[in-house]
Design a protein that fits this description.
The chain contains six helices and no strands. It has helices at about 1-15, 20-30, 35-40, 45-60, 70-80, 90-125. The radius of gyration is 17 Å and the shape is globular.
């Protein structure tokens, strides 16, 4: 959900049109949908496994919604390439990659800061 929040914020700051915002948000919600299947099938959730497994799962969720075929294809393309930066071919995709990368950086930094704070707190006590 955090990646969605970052994606939405970036998209709004970039003043994207409503359709681009929609594609960006749906892709952000679903971008890691292949993680669970990857862990079950391959024993890990390496990026290439997520990219291989995610689009089919996303398609099963999206097709009953009667979205335009082109939108489903675009969302599945982004999900299937979201760790392949050289495949970035549009603002929707670029925003998702930036949001996902930002989330990873901020979450790791936050964990380190939390650990540092706990160590400092222990030293003071």
């Amino acid at each position: 959900m955090a990646v969605h929040g970052y994606s939405r914020l970036i998209a709004q700051m970039e003043n994207v049109d409503g359709h681009t915002l929609f594609i960006t948000e749906v892709a952000a919600y679903l971008h890691d949908i292949g993680v669970k299947v990857s862990k079950e099938k391959y024993g890990n959730s390496q990026p290439q496994h997520q990219e291989a497994e995610g689009p089919a799962i996303a398609r099963k969720l999206l097709e009953p919604l009667s979205l335009p075929c082109a939108d489903v294809e675009r969302i599945c393309f982004i999900i299937g390439h979201h760790h392949t930066y050289k495949a970035i071919d549009g603002l929707d995709f670029q925003i998702l990659v930036e949001a996902d990368s930002g989330f990873k950086i901020f979450s790791k930094t936050g964990k380190r800061l939390s650990q540092d704070f706990k160590r400092a707190e222990a030293n003071v006590s």
